[in-house]
């Protein structure tokens, strides 16, 4: 669908893509409404991440509960935002190769860990929404609820 290969879709590309993939029974108004659903930030284009997020299947409440338990464990201050300070004593980075070599401090390792969950802004803070979004992507690749449960409990020791 991304004809100009800029990793985003404008309305014209979106409409053309719907037609190309056989969704010809959708009229312009319906296509515009669907475009608006995908264009979460209202920028007038759908970037790759917005597209993928909307294609994900919904998560069960049981999976959401596990994700929230893990976030609560990380959020030691209870303010709804996980920072490097929250991670001290919760996440052990002492076996990280760059920590062992002396290249990174503990705080640098913790910041790198945070950045893996952080959205595009990489501000060193993880909100519940960013954490949920990360695990929605993980969840979409795991069909079995029992396996997702086991993975979360082992990863976060919950």
From TrEMBL:
It comes from the Eukaryota. Pfam families: EF-hand_7 (PF13499), EF-hand_8 (PF13833). Residues 26-61, 62-97 form the EF-hand domain. GO terms for molecular function: calcium ion binding. SMART domains: EFh. The keyword Hydrolase does not apply. Keywords: Calcium, Metal-binding, Repeat. This is Calcyphosin-like protein. It comes from Elysia marginata.
């Amino acid at each position: 669908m991304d004809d100009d290969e800029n990793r985003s879709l404008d309305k014209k590309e979106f409409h053309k893509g719907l037609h190309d993939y056989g969704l010809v029974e959708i009229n312009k108004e319906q296509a515009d409404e669907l475009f608006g659903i995908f264009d979460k930030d209202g920028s007038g284009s759908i970037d790759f991440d917005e597209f993928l997020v909307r294609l994900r299947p919904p998560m069960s409440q049981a999976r959401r509960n596990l994700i929230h338990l893990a976030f609560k464990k990380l959020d030691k201050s209870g303010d709804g935002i996980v920072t490097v300070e929250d991670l001290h004593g919760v996440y052990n980075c002492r076996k990280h190769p760059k920590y062992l070599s002396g290249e990174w401090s503990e705080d640098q390792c913790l910041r790198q860990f945070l950045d893996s969950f952080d959205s595009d802004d990489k501000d060193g803070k993880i909100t519940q929404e960013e954490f949920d979004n990360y695990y929605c992507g993980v969840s979409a690749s795991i069909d079995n609820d029992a396996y997702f449960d086991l993975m979360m409990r082992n990863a976060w020791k919950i």
